[in-house]
């Protein structure tokens, strides 16, 4: 059971964070999850059960590509990279997210009644 501090992400949030992180640099799955956790100051912890299905969806839609590489611990890993279509999709989704956030912020603002 989740604690009160743990929340599910809204639909599409994980994919946006994956694409944004991979746009910065190609990474393997574990490093990707660790980057999101570290960048969010441990507020977001992406579980493997969510991360890898999201990566598979992004691969299926051509938004990321993967190739085999070797990790810093000399293990064989799949390294994911954003495709041009993925970069375009990210830009569109971030724009939509920002508009939605603006609306939510206005409704939640003090003095709104």
Q: Which short descriptors sum up this protein?
A:
113 residues, Arc Repressor Mutant, subunit A
Describe the protein in words.
With 113 residues, the chain is α+β, with helices and mostly antiparallel strands. The protein has a single domain, classed as Arc Repressor Mutant, subunit A (Orthogonal Bundle). The chain has helices spanning 13-24, 29-39, 48-60, 84-108, and strands at 27-28, 64-70, 76-82. A three-stranded antiparallel beta sheet has the order 1-3-2. A hairpin with a 5-residue loop joins strand 2 and strand 3. Helix 1 packs across helix 4 (84-108). It is elongated. The N and C termini lie far apart (35 Å). 17% of the residues are buried. Residues 1-6 have low confidence and may be disordered.
Radius of gyration equals 16 Å
Number of strands: 3
Report the CATH C-level class: Mainly Alpha
Distance between the termini: 35 Å
- Please give the CATH architecture: Orthogonal Bundle
Tell me the CATH topology.
Answer: Arc Repressor Mutant, subunit A
What portion of the residues fall into strands of 2 or more residues?
A: 5-15%
Query: What is the percent of helical residues?
Result: 40-55%
Give the low-confidence spans.
1-6
What is the element string, with H for helices and E for strands?
Answer: HEHHEEH
> Quick check: average pLDDT?
89
Quaternary structure state of the chains depicted: single chain
